[in-house]
Every structure is written in C-alpha cells, then in structure tokens.
Amino acid sequence: MKKLLVALCLTCALAMAVQAAEGKKERKLTDEQKTLQKDILAKYDTNKDGKLDRDERAKISTEDKEKMEKAGLSRKKKDKSK
C-alpha cells in the first residue's frame, strides 16, 4: 500500500513539473524586436549591467514605451484588483 501511495505521489509530482515547464515556453523575438530591445538597453542602461532596473525603466520616454508596445515588447501590467 505504501509503495502504491509513493508511486502515485511521484506520478503527480512529475505531471505537475511537466505542466509547469510547458507553461514557461520562451517566445522567439523577431529581428526588429531584437534591434529595438538592444537600442532601448543601450539608451537607458545607465549602470551598464546589461539589464534595466526599476529606476532605469521609469526613465523610458513615452515615445519609446509606445515603440516597445507596438513591437510587442511591453510587459503586461498585473491586474491587482483580483
């Protein structure tokens, strides 16, 4: 009985791990998106660490935010009302 329970638990854990991995599929960026991403990073990455922190993202101009949104690079804001 214990072996059956252990096998069932392992099967459930494996199924959950597979589902989680499938949910995290990496999207492919187009050449246009990659270029825009590099341009934005070069323009706003003031500490030159290769990523935009909160302060750097806050300084992105409205025009550049619109370009990123149009190219499909903007992050979707989480709905906190739920």
Can you tell me about this structure?
With 82 residues, the chain is mostly helical. The mean pLDDT is 83. The chain has four helices and no strands. The protein has helices at residues 2-23, 31-44, 54-58, 62-70. It starts with a helix and ends in a 12-residue tail after the last helix. The longest helix is centred in the first third of the chain and has 22 residues, at 2-23. Helices cover 61% and strands 0% of the residues. The protein has a domain at 29-73.
Structural class: mainly alpha
Mean pLDDT: 83
Largest sheet: none
Q: Using the CA coordinates, give the radius of gyration.
A: 20 Å
Helix and strand sequence = HHHH
Using DSSP, what is the number of strands? 0
Percent strand: under 5%
Describe this protein with a few key phrases.
single chain; 82 residues; mainly alpha; 4 helices; 61% helix; 0% strand
Summarize this, please?
The chain has 82 residues and is mainly α.
Write the SSE topology.
Elements: H1 2-23, H2 31-44, H3 54-58, H4 62-70
